[in-house]
């Protein structure tokens, strides 16, 4: 593709495989329009909705002029009018000339979901490992993570984050069920990296530590969970987490006295 757009983490734009050069003045408005198009679905985005999101305090005619000027600048920046298609008052990114990391992420999630639904025997462990590795490599951080959340970016930000969390939990449970405990633990650790407030990842990791007799590691997982919840939310761990901690402590005492 002529244009590659990275939004999962720090925003970056490649033109013909090279970082876009902006000169002395960063074209903030044009780049914001590109980000908004991606955030709102990339295809057939109503120009009216883009105007109301990006120029909420500007009246109709002035908003239209601002939009037309910004679209012209964005097209000039991308270097090829085929990348952005405007038809019947709707704007789309043409995937023949453009690659977006969000699209690749959604496709990989779809592939892994199909594998998980189809495979009840555990034969696809290696394929799922590879898919998960590609997903977590692609997902450097949350959507436009280095920028402030806006009315138009928050929905996709949360949706992609939730999809990755659900995927990591689901694949972790699948690996657990089919005896690949190392890979299950890898998924749960990745889950904590993505969002360290999702307590179920700590719980599953503690269960794995208990099963594999990594008792000290399991207890340190509990301490991290307790610290993060306390500092960030002012909360104590759930009763299930506390019960797992007691089991780990009891198992360690047994091991020491044996």
Give structural notes:
This protein has 258 residues and is α+β, with helices and mostly antiparallel strands. The chain has ten helices and seven strands. The strands form two sheets. Strands 3-2-1-7 form a four-stranded mixed β-sheet. A three-stranded antiparallel β-sheet has the order 4-6-5. A hairpin with a 5-residue loop joins strand 1 (3-6) and strand 2. Helix 4 (101-118) packs antiparallel against helix 5. The longest helix is centred in the middle third of the chain and has 24 residues, at 154-177. The mean pLDDT is 93.
Provide key terms for this protein.
single chain, 258 residues, alpha+beta, four-stranded mixed β-sheet, three-stranded antiparallel β-sheet, 10 helices, 9% strand
Layout: helices, strands, pairs:
Elements: E1 3-6, E2 12-15, E3 18-19, H1 28-39, E4 45-46, H2 47-54, H3 60-78, E5 84-87, E6 90-93, E7 98-100, H4 101-118, H5 125-138, H6 154-177, H7 181-194, H8 199-211, H9 215-233, H10 239-257
Parallel strand pairs: 1-7
Antiparallel strand pairs: 1-2, 2-3, 4-6, 5-6
Helix pairs in contact: 1-3, 2-3, 4-5, 4-6, 5-6, 6-7, 7-8, 8-9, 8-10, 9-10
Strands, count:
7
Which outline best applies?
Answer: elongated
Q: Numbering strands along the chain, what is their spatial order in the largest sheet?
A: 3-2-1-7
* Biggest sheet layout: 4 strands, mixed
Stretches with pLDDT under 50, minimum 5 residues = none
Roughly what percent helix? 55-70%
End-to-end Cα distance: 63 Å
Q: What sequence of helices (H) and strands (E) makes up the elements? A: EEEHEHHEEEHHHHHHH
From the structure provided, what is the oligomeric state, counting identical versus distinct chains?
A: single chain
Tally of alpha and pi helices: 10
User: For the CA atoms, what is the radius of gyration?
Assistant: 23 Å
Secondary structure class reads alpha+beta
């Amino acid at each position: 593709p002529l244009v590659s757009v990275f939004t999962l983490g720090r925003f970056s734009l490649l033109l013909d495989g090279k970082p876009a050069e902006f000169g002395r003045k960063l074209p903030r408005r044009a780049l914001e329009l590109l980000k908004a198009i991606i955030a709102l679905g990339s295809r057939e985005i109503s120009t009216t909705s883009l105007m109301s999101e990006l120029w909420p305090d500007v009246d109709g005619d002035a908003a239209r002029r601002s939009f037309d000027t910004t679209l012209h600048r964005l097209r000039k920046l991308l270097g090829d009018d085929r990348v952005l298609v405007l038809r019947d008052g709707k704007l789309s990114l043409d995937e023949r000339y453009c690659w977006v990391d969000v699209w690749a992420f959604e496709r990989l999630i779809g592939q892994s979901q199909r594998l998980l639904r189809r495979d009840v025997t555990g034969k696809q462990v290696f394929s799922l490992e590879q898919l998960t590795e590609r997903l977590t490599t692609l997902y450097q951080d949350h959507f436009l993570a280095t920028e402030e959340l806006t009315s138009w970016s928050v929905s996709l930000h949360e949706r992609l984050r939730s999809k990755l969390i659900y995927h990591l939990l689901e694949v972790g449970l699948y690996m657990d069920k089919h005896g690949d405990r190392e890979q299950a633990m890898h998924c749960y650790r990745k889950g904590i990296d993505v969002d360290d407030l999702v307590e179920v990842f700590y719980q599953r990791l503690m269960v794995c530590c208990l099963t594999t007799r990594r008792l000290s590691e399991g207890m340190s997982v509990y301490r991290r969970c307790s610290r993060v919840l306390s500092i960030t939310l002012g909360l104590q761990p759930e009763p299930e987490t506390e019960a797992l901690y007691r089991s780990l402590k009891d198992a360690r005492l047994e091991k020491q006295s044996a």
